[in-house]
Amino acid sequence: MKQFLDYQQQDGVALLTMNRPQERNVLSDPSQFREFVDVCRLINDDLSVRCVILTGSGSAFCAGGNVKDMKERTGMFAGSPVEVRDNYRRGIQRIPLAFYELEAPTIAAVNGPAIGAGCDLACLCDIRIASETASFAESFVKLGIVPGDGGAWLLQRAVGLSKASEMSFTGDAINANEALACGLVSRVVPAARLLDEARALASRIAANPSTALRLCKRLIREAQGARLDTVLEMSAAFQALAHHTADHATAVEKMSAKIQAKAMARREPNS
């Protein structure tokens, strides 16, 4: 079976494409979970990657879990309650744990429906851009189950408690414009321009130093659950590290040269 994640890298940007369009990129196979873990480890070890784009092939971003497997109680849904619990813990839950610890900034380019686990996967990304054809649903309750992959934690941090509760308790889908209105995505673009827009944003991010980007992302992540004084202490430590990087020295030299050039330009007419 071909790999689920297609990996391409260019100019500091890694493009991850979920590549089972005929299955609407559903998540059910242990090999898929391993691929996410492995690619996150690869990116964390490669400082040349300064931004990551995650998207889906075909008409869907990700349709969530495999309903056929649920019906037949096969795959990750097989076995006793204890076994199913372990299947989740040792299976699909490896994705949010690995993706949340991804050090490079991430962009979800949501090209179509992001349903159930697919919605949660989009929420794992730092930035979400939606195609006009995208939709989002925290739809677990419609199948008589609960978010099993971190959605109860992720969604409310993206849209707030009230909207997350509404989406989780109804299971109803929202379209791209509704997702924009509630802050689930930061922009909606024509379908034909989705990847171009994502790449353009990724390039603007990737133009910045890798170490500073990764430290900044870590601060934002830790600030979600830490006290202000704790984040300030961590910020001071990270800033001390950043001040001693070659990237910082180079950036300061360039900025100083620009300031001097502007100052010279202002003086010249009066000379």
Domains (count): 2
Judging from the principal axes of the Cα atoms, what is the shape? elongated
User: What is the structural class?
Assistant: alpha/beta
In the CATH hierarchy, the architecture of the largest domain is Alpha-Beta Complex
What CATH calls the topology of the largest domain is: 2-enoyl-CoA Hydratase, Chain A, domain 1
CATH class of the largest domain: Alpha Beta
Radius of gyration: 21 Å
Number of helices: 12
What is the oligomeric state here? single chain
Secondary-structure element string: EEHEHHHEEHEEHHEHEHHHH
Q: What is the number of beta strands?
A: 9
- Please bin the fraction of helical residues: 40-55%
What does this structure look like?
- With 271 residues, the protein is an alpha/beta fold.
- It folds into two domains: 5-206, 2-enoyl-CoA Hydratase, Chain A, domain 1, CATH 3.90.226; 210-270, no CATH class.
- It has twelve helices and nine strands.
- The strands form two sheets. The chain has a six-stranded mixed β-sheet with strand order 1-2-3-4-6-9, sandwiched between helices.
- The longest helix is centred in the C-terminal third of the chain and has 22 residues, at 246-267.
- The protein is elongated and about 80 Å long.
For this entry, give a set of tags.
271 residues; alpha/beta; 2-enoyl-CoA Hydratase, Chain A, domain 1; 2 domains; 6-stranded mixed β-sheet; elongated
